[in-house]
Amino acid sequence: MRSALVVLTWCLIVFGTGALASAYEEMPVGDGGTITGKVSITDGKPIPKGFNLITFPDPVYCGRISTGTGWRILKEFEVAGGGGLKDTVVWLADVKSGKPFQFAPQTIEARDCRFLPFVTIVRDREEVVIMNMDPVMHDIQAYETSNLGPRVLFNTPLPMNPHHKRNVGADSHEHLAGQPVKEVIHMTKGRKFFVMQCGFHAYMESWGLAVENPYYQLTGPDGSFSLTDVPPGEYTLVAWHPGVGTTIEKKITVGAKGSVRADFLFESPKGRRSAHEIEENPHYGLESLGKTVDIRPTLELQQP
Asked: I want to staple 93 with a disulfide (CB 3.0 to 4.6 A). Which of 18, 224, 257, 294 is the partner?
């Protein structure tokens, strides 16, 4: 299977899932409270995962986002000046009843050789829509993860819009929607997390979390979150960021119409984090192809 070894490397991570919730029941919440807080990370951004573009298809088009030296960086961490960590999911793991749980099908785009958004929150056994906006082919592979190892959720080509120009390069910025692919996220018992990757471009990675109740939020640019209309009671509050690879849990008590503050601090991963490290090596550079390749970061110049 294409890129299977790379995906397995990322998927064989032990995640804490928190307390498992039973079936959720909707009910009026007249005296609900609010949980607010901030998720931060220590020591700033970790060493980024780098991918040498000449080892994957479409290096010129996908190199529009690159370092300018032939490397593509996976943008996993967005950290604010005060250490606030964006794209962390915070949720209540053991809410049995509360406000309405309404959930529209989520859409993930392949755009500029990225899966956007990087983190998607879904509802188990409901659809996600994946769409190719690029003028190059993509292949989507999704795996649920746990300490027992990965399990394939789906593996399917992502159709490209036939009206795209035939020859695309670093200056091509046109995006046309291909035929949407609809897949049902069907997690096995006790599993919440899944990862998606393109079978052609390993640096196209996206993570997801299947939630069981409406009390969740993805942190904003400053790392803050707010959960409202929480029924009074004692709960387990959980925070998870895919780049860190662990969860943090806190026991909290919400009073009637009360407000609770809960902050989370993740430790930044240390050392080498992927099979490749960004370095200048003439035996592994653009010239190794034996021809001129025009890889220019015309959309985004990435900084290691």
From this structure: 18
What does DSSP say about strands 205-211 and 119-123: parallel, antiparallel, or unpaired? parallel
Note the residue count of the chain. 304
- Predicted pLDDT of residue 103: 83
CA distance 93 to 300: 38
Angle formed at CA 158 by CA 154 and CA 161, multiple of 5 degrees: 160
> What share of residues in the chain are helix, strand, coil (percent, to 5)?
5, 40, 55
Tokens 């790392």, located at residue: 223
Which residues, including other chains, have CB under 8 Å from residue 219's CB and lie 6 or more apart?
Answer: 38, 39, 84, 85, 86, 87, 88, 89, 90, 225
Distance CA 252, CA 216 (A): 15
- What sign does the CA torsion over 220, 21, 95, 260 have? negative
Phi and psi at residue 21, to the nearest 5° = -100, 145
Are 53 and 35 spatial neighbours (Cβ–Cβ below 8 Å)?
no
Average pLDDT, whole number, for the chain?
86
Query: What count of other Cβ atoms lies within 10 Å of the Cβ of residue 234?
Result: 9
